[in-house]
Write a structure and sequence with these properties.
The structure is a single chain. The chain is of the alpha/beta class. It has two domains: about 160 residues, NAD(P)-binding Rossmann-like Domain (Rossmann fold); about 170 residues, Dihydrodipicolinate Reductase, domain 2, CATH 3.30.360.10. The protein is built from ten helices and 16 strands. The chain has an eight-stranded mixed β-sheet, covered by helices on one side. A six-stranded parallel β-sheet has the order 3-2-1-4-5-6, with helices on both faces. Helix 1 packs across helix 9 and helix 4 runs parallel beside helix 5. The longest helix is centred in the last third of the chain and has 21 residues. The chain is globular. The structure holds nicotinamide-adenine-dinucleotide. Nicotinamide-adenine-dinucleotide (NAD) binds next to helix 1.
Length: about 350
Protein backbone atom coordinates (compact mmCIF):
# COMPACT_ATOMS: atom_id res chain seq x y z
CA UNK A 1 0.00 0.00 0.00
CA UNK A 2 1.17 3.53 -0.77
CA UNK A 3 1.01 5.71 2.34
CA UNK A 4 0.37 9.34 1.49
CA UNK A 5 1.18 12.40 3.60
CA UNK A 6 -0.92 15.41 2.67
CA UNK A 7 0.28 18.97 3.40
CA UNK A 8 -2.10 21.93 3.13
CA UNK A 9 -5.70 20.77 2.51
CA UNK A 10 -7.01 24.29 1.76
CA UNK A 11 -9.09 25.29 -1.28
CA UNK A 12 -7.06 23.47 -3.92
CA UNK A 13 -6.01 20.76 -1.53
CA UNK A 14 -9.64 19.84 -0.97
CA UNK A 15 -9.83 18.71 -4.61
CA UNK A 16 -6.82 16.41 -4.20
CA UNK A 17 -7.90 15.11 -0.79
CA UNK A 18 -11.22 14.02 -2.33
CA UNK A 19 -9.82 12.72 -5.60
CA UNK A 20 -7.32 10.55 -3.66
CA UNK A 21 -10.26 9.19 -1.67
CA UNK A 22 -12.07 8.29 -4.88
CA UNK A 23 -8.87 6.76 -6.28
CA UNK A 24 -8.48 4.61 -3.17
CA UNK A 25 -11.40 2.56 -4.50
CA UNK A 26 -9.28 1.30 -7.38
CA UNK A 27 -5.70 1.77 -6.13
CA UNK A 28 -4.09 0.48 -2.94
CA UNK A 29 -3.44 3.94 -1.45
CA UNK A 30 -4.29 5.69 1.80
CA UNK A 31 -3.83 9.21 3.12
CA UNK A 32 -2.34 8.24 6.48
CA UNK A 33 -1.10 11.69 7.58
CA UNK A 34 -2.43 15.21 7.08
CA UNK A 35 -0.85 18.54 8.04
CA UNK A 36 -2.30 22.03 8.13
CA UNK A 37 -1.61 25.05 10.31
CA UNK A 38 -5.38 25.54 10.66
CA UNK A 39 -7.34 23.13 12.82
CA UNK A 40 -10.51 23.81 10.78
CA UNK A 41 -8.86 22.44 7.64
CA UNK A 42 -7.57 19.39 9.53
CA UNK A 43 -11.10 18.82 10.84
CA UNK A 44 -12.48 19.06 7.29
CA UNK A 45 -9.82 16.70 5.86
CA UNK A 46 -10.61 14.18 8.61
CA UNK A 47 -14.22 14.02 7.38
CA UNK A 48 -12.77 12.43 4.22
CA UNK A 49 -9.85 10.49 5.77
CA UNK A 50 -11.01 9.82 9.38
CA UNK A 51 -8.09 7.54 10.31
CA UNK A 52 -5.32 9.93 9.23
CA UNK A 53 -2.89 11.27 11.84
CA UNK A 54 -2.98 15.05 12.32
CA UNK A 55 0.07 17.29 12.17
CA UNK A 56 0.03 21.05 12.67
CA UNK A 57 2.66 22.02 10.13
CA UNK A 58 4.22 20.50 7.00
CA UNK A 59 7.59 20.25 8.72
CA UNK A 60 6.08 18.34 11.62
CA UNK A 61 4.58 15.79 9.20
CA UNK A 62 7.81 15.42 7.23
CA UNK A 63 9.90 15.04 10.42
CA UNK A 64 7.68 12.36 11.92
CA UNK A 65 5.35 10.58 9.54
CA UNK A 66 6.13 7.25 7.91
CA UNK A 67 4.88 7.88 4.35
CA UNK A 68 5.84 6.92 0.78
CA UNK A 69 4.38 9.89 -1.12
CA UNK A 70 3.79 13.52 -0.15
CA UNK A 71 1.16 15.82 -1.68
CA UNK A 72 2.04 19.54 -1.27
CA UNK A 73 -0.85 21.97 -1.78
CA UNK A 74 0.28 24.77 0.53
CA UNK A 75 0.68 28.41 -0.55
CA UNK A 76 3.22 28.64 -3.38
CA UNK A 77 6.11 30.15 -1.36
CA UNK A 78 6.22 26.95 0.73
CA UNK A 79 6.35 24.47 -2.16
CA UNK A 80 10.16 24.46 -2.54
CA UNK A 81 10.72 23.88 1.20
CA UNK A 82 8.35 20.92 1.43
CA UNK A 83 9.18 19.40 -1.96
CA UNK A 84 12.91 19.34 -1.16
CA UNK A 85 12.32 17.99 2.34
CA UNK A 86 10.02 15.25 1.02
CA UNK A 87 12.55 14.19 -1.64
CA UNK A 88 15.39 14.22 0.91
CA UNK A 89 13.24 12.00 3.14
CA UNK A 90 13.07 9.50 0.26
CA UNK A 91 9.45 10.18 -0.70
CA UNK A 92 7.81 10.62 -4.08
CA UNK A 93 6.24 14.08 -4.26
CA UNK A 94 3.36 15.88 -5.95
CA UNK A 95 3.46 19.69 -5.80
CA UNK A 96 0.75 22.09 -6.81
CA UNK A 97 1.83 24.73 -9.32
CA UNK A 98 3.83 26.90 -9.53
CA UNK A 99 6.63 24.54 -8.53
CA UNK A 100 8.46 27.45 -6.87
CA UNK A 101 9.10 31.19 -7.15
CA UNK A 102 12.85 31.65 -7.74
CA UNK A 103 15.73 30.43 -9.85
CA UNK A 104 17.64 29.31 -6.74
CA UNK A 105 14.70 27.16 -5.68
CA UNK A 106 14.47 25.60 -9.17
CA UNK A 107 18.12 24.58 -8.89
CA UNK A 108 17.74 23.22 -5.35
CA UNK A 109 14.62 21.23 -6.23
CA UNK A 110 16.16 19.67 -9.34
CA UNK A 111 19.25 18.72 -7.33
CA UNK A 112 17.15 17.11 -4.59
CA UNK A 113 15.17 15.21 -7.24
CA UNK A 114 18.35 13.98 -8.93
CA UNK A 115 19.84 12.78 -5.64
CA UNK A 116 16.67 11.08 -4.44
CA UNK A 117 15.79 9.25 -7.65
CA UNK A 118 12.14 9.48 -6.58
CA UNK A 119 9.13 10.31 -8.76
CA UNK A 120 7.78 13.84 -8.82
CA UNK A 121 4.99 15.70 -10.50
CA UNK A 122 3.70 19.27 -10.64
CA UNK A 123 -0.01 20.08 -10.83
CA UNK A 124 0.14 21.75 -14.25
CA UNK A 125 -3.45 20.65 -14.53
CA UNK A 126 -4.22 22.40 -17.82
CA UNK A 127 -2.16 19.71 -19.54
CA UNK A 128 -4.86 17.27 -18.38
CA UNK A 129 -7.85 19.38 -19.48
CA UNK A 130 -9.78 18.25 -22.53
CA UNK A 131 -9.93 21.58 -24.47
CA UNK A 132 -6.14 21.84 -24.19
CA UNK A 133 -5.48 18.15 -24.91
CA UNK A 134 -7.62 18.62 -28.04
CA UNK A 135 -5.67 21.74 -29.01
CA UNK A 136 -2.40 19.80 -28.72
CA UNK A 137 -3.86 17.00 -30.86
CA UNK A 138 -5.01 19.46 -33.58
CA UNK A 139 -1.57 21.11 -33.62
CA UNK A 140 0.38 17.82 -33.57
CA UNK A 141 -1.66 16.16 -36.34
CA UNK A 142 -1.71 19.33 -38.47
CA UNK A 143 -5.42 18.68 -39.03
CA UNK A 144 -5.84 22.32 -40.09
CA UNK A 145 -2.27 22.89 -41.26
CA UNK A 146 0.31 24.92 -39.39
CA UNK A 147 -0.45 27.38 -36.61
CA UNK A 148 -0.38 31.05 -37.66
CA UNK A 149 -1.36 32.81 -34.46
CA UNK A 150 -2.65 32.14 -30.95
CA UNK A 151 -4.45 34.32 -28.44
CA UNK A 152 -4.83 32.82 -24.96
CA UNK A 153 -6.47 34.35 -21.95
CA UNK A 154 -6.97 33.33 -18.33
CA UNK A 155 -9.11 35.91 -16.56
CA UNK A 156 -10.18 35.84 -12.93
CA UNK A 157 -11.32 38.00 -10.05
CA UNK A 158 -8.83 38.64 -7.27
CA UNK A 159 -8.24 35.36 -5.34
CA UNK A 160 -9.14 36.81 -1.97
CA UNK A 161 -10.27 33.50 -0.42
CA UNK A 162 -6.86 32.26 0.61
CA UNK A 163 -5.37 31.65 4.05
CA UNK A 164 -4.10 35.02 5.40
CA UNK A 165 -4.74 36.48 1.92
CA UNK A 166 -1.34 35.14 0.81
CA UNK A 167 -2.18 35.47 -2.93
CA UNK A 168 -2.11 39.26 -2.48
CA UNK A 169 1.45 39.21 -1.16
CA UNK A 170 3.61 39.00 -4.26
CA UNK A 171 6.55 37.47 -2.38
CA UNK A 172 4.26 34.57 -1.49
CA UNK A 173 2.31 34.10 -4.74
CA UNK A 174 4.50 35.69 -7.42
CA UNK A 175 1.41 37.70 -8.47
CA UNK A 176 -0.90 36.76 -11.33
CA UNK A 177 2.21 36.10 -13.44
CA UNK A 178 3.52 33.11 -11.47
CA UNK A 179 0.14 31.95 -10.27
CA UNK A 180 -2.40 32.12 -13.10
CA UNK A 181 -0.63 33.16 -16.29
CA UNK A 182 1.90 30.31 -15.82
CA UNK A 183 -0.80 27.80 -16.84
CA UNK A 184 -1.00 29.09 -20.42
CA UNK A 185 2.74 29.68 -20.74
CA UNK A 186 3.35 26.13 -19.53
CA UNK A 187 0.78 24.77 -21.95
CA UNK A 188 2.35 26.56 -24.91
CA UNK A 189 5.77 25.26 -23.89
CA UNK A 190 4.29 21.76 -23.64
CA UNK A 191 2.86 21.99 -27.17
CA UNK A 192 5.50 24.05 -28.99
CA UNK A 193 8.72 23.63 -27.01
CA UNK A 194 10.75 26.78 -27.34
CA UNK A 195 9.01 30.13 -26.71
CA UNK A 196 10.79 33.45 -27.08
CA UNK A 197 9.48 36.46 -25.23
CA UNK A 198 8.98 39.27 -27.74
CA UNK A 199 7.14 41.84 -25.66
CA UNK A 200 5.63 42.14 -22.19
CA UNK A 201 3.18 44.72 -20.96
CA UNK A 202 1.53 44.83 -17.54
CA UNK A 203 -0.63 46.80 -15.14
CA UNK A 204 -0.67 46.78 -11.35
CA UNK A 205 -3.13 47.29 -8.53
CA UNK A 206 -3.37 50.92 -7.48
CA UNK A 207 -3.31 50.13 -3.75
CA UNK A 208 -0.68 47.39 -3.37
CA UNK A 209 1.35 47.94 -6.53
CA UNK A 210 1.29 44.20 -7.28
CA UNK A 211 0.98 43.24 -10.94
CA UNK A 212 -2.55 42.13 -11.71
CA UNK A 213 -2.46 41.91 -15.51
CA UNK A 214 0.18 40.70 -17.92
CA UNK A 215 0.07 40.48 -21.71
CA UNK A 216 3.04 38.79 -23.37
CA UNK A 217 3.75 38.26 -27.03
CA UNK A 218 5.80 35.14 -27.73
CA UNK A 219 7.58 34.10 -30.88
CA UNK A 220 6.85 30.38 -31.34
CA UNK A 221 8.74 29.64 -34.54
CA UNK A 222 6.52 30.33 -37.54
CA UNK A 223 3.76 31.87 -35.45
CA UNK A 224 3.03 34.35 -32.69
CA UNK A 225 1.17 33.90 -29.44
CA UNK A 226 -0.37 36.62 -27.30
CA UNK A 227 -1.07 35.45 -23.76
CA UNK A 228 -2.96 37.42 -21.13
CA UNK A 229 -3.47 36.72 -17.45
CA UNK A 230 -5.62 38.91 -15.20
CA UNK A 231 -6.62 39.05 -11.56
CA UNK A 232 -9.32 41.66 -11.90
CA UNK A 233 -9.99 44.11 -9.02
CA UNK A 234 -13.66 43.08 -9.00
CA UNK A 235 -13.97 40.07 -6.74
CA UNK A 236 -16.96 38.72 -8.64
CA UNK A 237 -15.22 38.82 -12.02
CA UNK A 238 -15.86 35.31 -13.42
CA UNK A 239 -13.07 32.84 -14.11
CA UNK A 240 -12.74 32.60 -17.91
CA UNK A 241 -9.99 30.64 -19.63
CA UNK A 242 -10.09 30.84 -23.42
CA UNK A 243 -8.08 30.54 -26.63
CA UNK A 244 -8.38 31.43 -30.30
CA UNK A 245 -6.01 29.72 -32.72
CA UNK A 246 -5.61 30.55 -36.38
CA UNK A 247 -4.25 27.73 -38.59
CA UNK A 248 -3.42 27.71 -42.32
CA UNK A 249 -6.87 26.30 -43.12
CA UNK A 250 -9.16 27.11 -40.22
CA UNK A 251 -9.69 28.91 -36.95
CA UNK A 252 -10.73 27.39 -33.61
CA UNK A 253 -12.19 29.09 -30.55
CA UNK A 254 -12.53 27.82 -26.99
CA UNK A 255 -14.21 30.02 -24.40
CA UNK A 256 -15.01 28.35 -21.08
CA UNK A 257 -17.78 30.86 -20.36
CA UNK A 258 -19.66 29.38 -23.34
CA UNK A 259 -19.17 25.73 -22.40
CA UNK A 260 -16.61 22.98 -22.70
CA UNK A 261 -16.61 22.71 -26.50
CA UNK A 262 -14.45 24.09 -29.25
CA UNK A 263 -15.86 25.98 -32.24
CA UNK A 264 -14.13 25.54 -35.60
CA UNK A 265 -14.63 27.24 -38.95
CA UNK A 266 -12.64 26.80 -42.15
CA UNK A 267 -12.01 28.76 -45.35
CA UNK A 268 -14.78 26.81 -47.17
CA UNK A 269 -17.40 28.45 -44.97
CA UNK A 270 -17.93 25.24 -43.01
CA UNK A 271 -18.10 25.19 -39.26
CA UNK A 272 -18.95 23.01 -36.27
CA UNK A 273 -17.96 22.04 -32.76
CA UNK A 274 -15.57 19.57 -31.20
CA UNK A 275 -17.53 18.23 -28.25
CA UNK A 276 -15.94 16.97 -25.07
CA UNK A 277 -16.36 13.18 -24.87
CA UNK A 278 -18.56 12.00 -22.02
CA UNK A 279 -16.50 11.16 -18.96
CA UNK A 280 -15.70 7.46 -18.65
CA UNK A 281 -16.37 7.81 -14.97
CA UNK A 282 -19.47 9.63 -13.83
CA UNK A 283 -20.37 8.26 -10.47
CA UNK A 284 -21.13 9.72 -7.09
CA UNK A 285 -18.49 8.79 -4.58
CA UNK A 286 -20.17 9.22 -1.23
CA UNK A 287 -17.04 8.71 0.87
CA UNK A 288 -15.17 11.39 -1.06
CA UNK A 289 -18.30 13.58 -1.15
CA UNK A 290 -17.93 14.25 -4.86
CA UNK A 291 -18.92 13.30 -8.36
CA UNK A 292 -15.76 12.04 -10.03
CA UNK A 293 -16.45 13.52 -13.46
CA UNK A 294 -16.87 16.96 -11.83
CA UNK A 295 -13.32 16.65 -10.53
CA UNK A 296 -12.18 16.08 -14.11
CA UNK A 297 -8.57 16.96 -14.68
CA UNK A 298 -7.59 17.01 -10.97
CA UNK A 299 -8.69 13.41 -10.59
CA UNK A 300 -6.97 12.43 -13.84
CA UNK A 301 -3.66 14.05 -12.87
CA UNK A 302 -3.66 12.41 -9.44
CA UNK A 303 -4.48 9.04 -11.02
CA UNK A 304 -1.68 9.50 -13.55
CA UNK A 305 0.89 10.24 -10.84
CA UNK A 306 -0.15 7.24 -8.74
CA UNK A 307 0.23 5.06 -11.87
CA UNK A 308 3.70 6.51 -12.55
CA UNK A 309 4.75 5.48 -9.04
CA UNK A 310 3.10 2.06 -8.99
CA UNK A 311 4.18 1.05 -12.49
CA UNK A 312 7.56 2.76 -12.20
CA UNK A 313 6.89 4.67 -15.42
CA UNK A 314 8.33 7.99 -16.54
CA UNK A 315 6.16 11.05 -15.86
CA UNK A 316 5.90 12.30 -19.45
CA UNK A 317 3.11 14.82 -18.96
CA UNK A 318 3.95 17.10 -16.06
CA UNK A 319 7.47 16.43 -14.84
CA UNK A 320 9.37 18.54 -12.35
CA UNK A 321 11.90 19.34 -15.06
CA UNK A 322 9.35 20.70 -17.57
CA UNK A 323 7.45 22.62 -14.87
CA UNK A 324 10.79 24.17 -13.82
CA UNK A 325 11.30 25.52 -17.32
CA UNK A 326 7.90 27.21 -17.16
CA UNK A 327 8.82 28.78 -13.81
CA UNK A 328 12.06 30.14 -15.29
CA UNK A 329 10.29 31.58 -18.34
CA UNK A 330 7.58 33.22 -16.21
CA UNK A 331 10.24 34.69 -13.91
CA UNK A 332 11.73 36.42 -16.98
CA UNK A 333 8.32 37.75 -17.94
CA UNK A 334 7.75 38.87 -14.36
CA UNK A 335 10.94 40.97 -14.38
CA UNK A 336 9.91 42.61 -17.66
CA UNK A 337 6.37 43.11 -16.38
CA UNK A 338 7.65 44.95 -13.30
CA UNK A 339 9.59 47.33 -15.55
CA UNK A 340 6.62 48.03 -17.82
CA UNK A 341 3.77 48.09 -15.28
CA UNK A 342 1.63 51.16 -14.72
N1 LIG B 1 -3.95 23.86 -10.29
C1 LIG B 1 -4.86 24.79 -10.11
O1 LIG B 1 -5.77 24.94 -10.91
C2 LIG B 1 -4.80 25.63 -8.87
C3 LIG B 1 -5.89 26.41 -8.51
C4 LIG B 1 -5.82 27.14 -7.32
C5 LIG B 1 -4.66 27.10 -6.54
N2 LIG B 1 -3.61 26.34 -6.95
C6 LIG B 1 -2.36 26.30 -6.16
O2 LIG B 1 -2.59 25.53 -4.99
C7 LIG B 1 -1.83 26.04 -3.89
C8 LIG B 1 -2.76 26.33 -2.72
O3 LIG B 1 -3.72 27.32 -3.09
P1 LIG B 1 -5.13 27.45 -2.34
O4 LIG B 1 -6.00 28.31 -3.16
O5 LIG B 1 -5.59 26.10 -1.95
O6 LIG B 1 -4.69 28.25 -1.03
P2 LIG B 1 -5.35 28.13 0.42
O7 LIG B 1 -4.83 29.29 1.21
O8 LIG B 1 -6.83 27.96 0.29
O9 LIG B 1 -4.77 26.76 1.00
C9 LIG B 1 -3.46 26.60 1.48
C10 LIG B 1 -3.51 25.74 2.75
O10 LIG B 1 -2.17 25.54 3.24
C11 LIG B 1 -2.21 25.65 4.66
N3 LIG B 1 -0.86 25.95 5.16
C12 LIG B 1 -0.22 27.13 5.19
N4 LIG B 1 1.01 27.01 5.73
C13 LIG B 1 1.16 25.69 6.02
C14 LIG B 1 2.22 24.93 6.61
N5 LIG B 1 3.39 25.49 6.99
N6 LIG B 1 2.02 23.60 6.81
C15 LIG B 1 0.84 23.02 6.47
N7 LIG B 1 -0.20 23.70 5.89
C16 LIG B 1 -0.02 25.02 5.68
C17 LIG B 1 -3.24 26.74 4.92
O11 LIG B 1 -3.75 26.72 6.22
C18 LIG B 1 -4.29 26.40 3.87
O12 LIG B 1 -5.25 25.49 4.39
C19 LIG B 1 -1.12 27.29 -4.43
O13 LIG B 1 0.19 26.97 -4.78
C20 LIG B 1 -1.92 27.67 -5.67
O14 LIG B 1 -1.16 28.33 -6.65
C21 LIG B 1 -3.67 25.60 -8.07
Amino acid sequence: MLKIGFIGPGSMGSFHVRSLKALAKEEDIEVTDIADVRQERLDWAKTIWPNAKEWHDGDELLDNADVDVVWVTTPSYLHARFVIKALNKGCHVFSEKPLCLSEDDVRAILEAKRKSGKKAMVGMVVRFMWPYIKLKEIVDTKQFGNVRSIVMQRLSGNPHWSWNDWFNDEKKSGSVVMDLHIHDVDLLKYIFGDLKIEHVTATKYKDTGMINQIITTFDIGDAKAVVEGVWHHCLKFPFIPSYRVEFDDACIIYDASKGERIYWTNWNNEDGYFEQPKAEFNEENKEANMNISDMGAYYIEDKYFIECIKEDKENEIASLESASESVLLCLKEYELAKKSAK
